[in-house]
From TrEMBL:
Domain called NAD(P)-binding: residue spans: 8-200
Protein name: NAD-dependent epimerase/dehydratase family protein
Source organism per UniProt: Orlajensenia leifsoniae
Length: 225
């Protein structure tokens, strides 16, 4: 059984991932900022932990994860960064959630001895053009900085980069590769890719551009270098 802490545990991808992990017999912990979301997180099978990654420190996040472990479920062994300030937020929250929230999560994982870290980014994060819309520019800058921080870490990381997200049902079939530069990705397929990554030491140090496609997820991951 794996034990995964999902930062931003009430997000759409996060809830789908929690359901997928717990259905497979794993433990999921949903780190949420709003206690009113706890029941929805429980309904997805996860253990809710209330902690706001904008106001909490990395040490507080590490302590919160340790507290879950000491409740008898065993130590958390993976972190998925699925939080995001969202489309309606301004530039400041892109920095405090999308960038600094990730940096704190990386630090908390390292402090806790958690090696596996999967981060949700987006296709094109390395080619960010921050000259356009201020809010989107801030998002691009924050996501690239978060990905750079994870790449610079000594964790067993994987960066998952979906295209334009949609709410279609999971097909379990995707296209993954450096040649994938645009497209649409269901949140359900994104969650399924992350769940598969957490099953084993797959794509460590990999940046995966993922869109909906024709190849079964296991096959797509197995074909990576
Ligand atoms: N939109 C796209 O087309 C697109 C494309 C590629 C990648 N992405 C990335 O994919 C990520 C996940 O997508 P999604 O649809 O699952 O996003 P989502 O539903 O907006 O989930 C993001 C979660 O982050 C949580 N959050 C925000 N601030 C927080 C804080 N201070 N502390 C703890 N949690 C906090 C939110 O909590 P609340 O529920 O309390 O607000 C929300 O539940 C996005 O954040 C984005 O970076 C998006």
């Amino acid at each position: 059984m794996t034990r995964t802490a999902i930062i931003g545990g009430h997000g759409k991808i996060a809830l789908l991932l929690a359901r997928s992990l717990t259905d497979a017999g794993h433990l999921a912990v949903g780190v949420i900022r709003n206690p009113a979301h706890a029941d929805e997180v429980r309904a997805a099978g996860a253990v809710p932990v209330v902690l706001d990654i904008e106001t909490a420190s990395a040490e507080e996040l590490a302590s919160a994860l340790a507290a879950v472990s000491s409740d008898g479920d065993g130590a958390v062994d993976a972190v998925v960064f699925a939080a995001g300030a969202g489309g309606g937020s301004g530039a400041a929250r892109k920095e405090t959630v999308d960038h600094q929230g990730s940096v704190k999560s990386i630090a908390a994982a390292r402090q806790s001895g958690i090696r596996r870290f999967v981060q949700i980014s987006y296709i094109g994060a390395d080619q960010a053009d921050t000259s356009g819309d201020e809010s989107f520019g801030a998002y691009q800058k924050a996501k690239k900085a978060a990905d750079d921080a994870l790449r610079a870490s000594d964790l067993d990381w994987t960066i998952v980069r979906p295209g334009h997200l949609n709410d279609d049902a999971a097909t379990g079939r995707v296209r993954i590769g450096d040649d994938v530069t645009s497209g649409s990705t269901s949140r359900a397929n994104t969650a399924a890719v992350i769940a598969a990554l957490l099953e084993g030491p797959v794509a460590l140090g990999g940046v995966l551009n993922v869109i909906d496609g024709d190849t079964p997820i296991a096959e797509a991951l197995a074909s990576l270098d």
